[in-house]
Write a structure and sequence with these properties.
Layout lengths: L13 H9 L4 E6 L2 E6 L2 E6 L5 E5 L2 H10 L4 E2 L10 E5 L6 H15 L2 H4 L4
Length: 122
């Protein structure tokens, strides 16, 4: 677990999120709700939380409960706010390293990206 390249809190940083998100094909950063968001083909796939310690990523609603139950220190939703969205929140400090962040971002990106871009990603 020596891959936490830039993570200061044992997890990863907001800078790591930006670097990894923008490395994915067709991704652009856009400010929304006063926060940085990252989109592929105009579709949101990750947003940074207010204080740069959490991110929101795409996740089918039916899968969220299982993830939260398995790792509640890492995954959560905000009741009343996230109820009707296919999004899950992630605490950056709970991530092992940038590799884990990259896997989470890629999964979210694949849910938002058009097929022509997804086909290029193994």
């Amino acid at each position: 677990m020596e891959h936490g390249e830039h993570g200061e809190r044992g997890g990863v940083s907001a800078d790591d999120v930006r670097t990894e998100a923008l490395a994915l094909p067709g991704t652009a950063e856009k400010l929304a709700w006063g926060q940085p968001t990252f989109r592929v083909a105009g579709k949101l796939f990750v947003s940074l939380g207010d204080d740069d310690t959490t991110i929101g990523v795409k996740c089918p609603r039916e899968e969220r409960g299982e993830l939260i139950e398995a790792e509640p220190e890492k995954f959560f939703v905000v009741p009343g706010h996230d109820d009707n969205y296919n999004f899950l929140r992630v605490r950056l400090a709970a991530l092992e390293d940038v590799g884990e962040l990259r896997a989470i971002l890629l999964d979210s990106w694949r849910q938002a990206a058009p097929k022509r871009l997804r086909d290029g990603q193994g």
